[in-house]
Amino acid sequence: MTHPVPPRRSVLLGRGSWGEARRIADILRKETVGGALLLAAAVAAMIWANSPWAGAYETLRDLRIGPEALHLNLSLAGWAGDGLLAVFFFVAGLELKREFVAGDLRDVRRAAVPIAAALGGVIVPALLYLLITRGVEGAGKGWAIPTATDIAFALAVLAVIGRFLPTALRTFLLTLAVVDDLVAIVIIALFYTDHLAPVPLAAALVLLAVFTVLVQRRVRSAWLLLPLAAAVWALVHASGVHATVAGVLLGFAVPVLRSHDAGGPEAGPGLAEHFEHRFRPISAGVAVPVFAFFSAGVALGGLDGLTGAFGDPVVLGVVAGLVAGKPIGIMAATWLTARFTRADLDEDLAWVDMAGLSVLAGIGFTVSLLIGELAFGVEGAEHVKVAVLTGSLTAALIATVILRLRNRAYRRIHEIETADLDHDGIPDVYETDEAGTADA
Length: 440
Description:
Elements: E1 11-12, H1 18-49, H2 54-62, E2 64-65, E3 74-75, H3 76-101, H4 108-132, H5 151-161, H6 167-191, H7 198-216, H8 222-239, H9 244-253, H10 271-295, H11 302-309, H12 313-340, E4 344-345, H13 351-360, H14 366-380, H15 382-405, H16 407-422, E5 431-432, E6 438-439
Parallel strand pairs: 1-4
Antiparallel strand pairs: 2-3, 5-6
Helix pairs in contact: 1-5, 1-6, 1-10, 3-6, 3-9, 3-10, 4-6, 4-12, 5-15, 7-8, 8-9, 12-13, 12-15, 13-15, 14-15
């Protein structure tokens, strides 16, 4: 009598496919360099804003340029937040679509964990912030500030402390941050649009449709697409919707796979990956660092000013959301997903690894600063900047301690992964069952 073979349990944080691992590694290298530039820009801004020449920094930040008739007479800080960050969100849109159309996240089982973790990392920090700031007039509009993860900042920290961090953990962090970006985009569009001008919005949608038709026909001429994309951005900005949303919509419009006439998916990377390679260095190396330079420069006012800032419930709420809310939400969501899907943690990893990664996700710099300015205005967000900087730095330090304790284990896993890659150049990362389906 034969007994039925029990179904094989799925693996949580197992290594992904070789092609995806190679693509993720390329992204991580670029984002790590961008993170170093981001940190340098933020430190430079803090030093300048607290130096005897702070007035020059404020003058530069508030310098207004651009045509008033087109609603584009913006300060340099405004151009950085509304304009340059649109490039960042365009790349995020490309990455999101790439992950769900052709990446490992097209597998529902593999996508469930980072999506659930990202949602948990949004809901719990927001609730914790609202709990701490309850009863404080006007504070509630900042609920979304501690919900974001800054992947460039986090990867810059990893470059210093986690050189041997397993590929699965790095990929999980990147994927979580990508989904986190999508949630942040939705939050910005739904909750931080004060007024809506329907005519510019309708015109933006028409031009977006034209852009979509062109890229779906695999047109890649910069002289045609760039002016069209700029027009879409300007019209979205004039409509009252935050202009960074235009970047995401433009990214979503770009096809991921090659057309049938061009050989199909097997013939090589599609237009989305082509654009991503072209614009990711601009995003990571220019857009995000410049935004950080104009947003991180907050005058602390010495020890008294810093002490006064921490008497503000908004500051306490943001710090608590980033340092405690993020890891609690991510850990809880991941554990629940694993329990209900009967998934086992990869045998080389432990839950303490997930804890360190969850704390690292509390680094919420770029998007947190952006939402802080949208919630309280540029002038009213000074305490928010202190909170975001403090929370992000604290999360980085705690994550450093946790992940460094596991460095010996990570080095051993790194040696195994390197050996896999050296074996005929192809990593042995999938086991297959009798039906030939990958056990990820």
